[in-house]
Specification:
The protein is an alpha/beta fold and 161 residues long. It has a domain at 1-11 and 21-39 and 51-104: HAD superfamily/HAD-like (Rossmann fold, 3-Layer(aba) Sandwich). It has helices spanning 34-43, 64-79, 108-116, 131-139, and strands at residues 3-7, 46-53, 87-91, 125-128, 143-146. A five-stranded parallel beta sheet has the order 3-2-1-4-5, sandwiched between helices. Strand 2 (46-53), helix 2 and strand 3 form a beta-alpha-beta unit. The radius of gyration is 15 Å and the shape is globular.
Length: 161
C-alpha cells in the first residue's frame, strides 16, 4: 500500500488572507517552503494529494474552469521544482446546499483518493489550517497536522518518516 500526504490548498499551499476566494492566477502566491517541503515528501515516497473546498463555484463567484486553471498553474509551478502532485480533488458546493458528502469535513474526496491510489490511511497524513480539515483527516483514519494559515510548513518535515 502507498502512503500519502493530503493537503488543504488555501492557507496551506498558497497564501490566503485578503482574498478569501483564490481563483485568479495573479492572486495565487505559493506559501514559503512549499516546493521544498513537497519535494522532501516525494523523496520519502509520499503521494501528494490536495483536498480543497471551493464553494465560490456554486456561489457563482468563479467557475470550474477558473479553478482548474489555478490548479494547472500550481501543477506547472511545482514541476519547475521537480515536484509532481498525485491529484487535486475539489468540492464545488457551499454549506447551504444541503448534505454534501465531499465538502470537508466530509471525507468523500479523501476516500476516493484512498481507493484510487491504494493508500494506507494509518501511514498517511492530512495537513490543514482549519478544524474542518482536522476533522476530515481524523474521520478518514489519517494522522493530522494543524498549522497556522500561511505558515512555512518546512518546519514540520521531521514529523514525516
Amino acid at each position: 500500500m502507498n502512503k500519502a500526504v493530503f493537503l488543504d490548498r488555501d492557507g496551506v499551499i498558497n497564501y490566503n488572507s485578503d482574498h478569501y476566494y483564490i481563483y485568479r492566477i495573479e492572486d495565487f502566491l505559493m506559501n514559503k517552503g512549499i516546493p521544498e517541503f513537497l519535494g522532501k515528501l516525494s523523496e520519502k515516497d509520499y503521494l501528494l494529494i490536495i483536498i480543497t473546498n471551493q464553494s465560490g463555484i456554486s456561489r457563482g463567484i468563479y467557475s470550474r474552469e477558473e479553478t482548474e486553471k489555478i490548479h494547472e498553474f500550481l501543477t506547472s509551478e511545482l514541476l519547475k521544482h521537480r515536484v509532481r502532485l498525485t491529484e487535486i480533488y475539489y468540492c464545488p458546493h457551499h454549506p447551504e446546499q444541503g448534505n454534501c458528502l465531499c465538502r470537508k469535513p466530509g471525507t468523500l474526496m479523501i476516500e476516493k483518493a484512498i481507493a484510487r491510489f491504494n493508500i494506507n490511511p494509518a501511514a498517511s497524513w492530512f495537513i490543514g489550517d482549519s478544524e474542518s480539515d482536522m476533522q476530515a483527516g481524523k474521520e478518514a483514519g489519517l494522522k493530522t497536522l494543524l498549522i497556522r494559515p500561511n505558515e512555512n510548513i518546512l518546519n514540520y518535515l521531521d514529523l514525516f518518516d
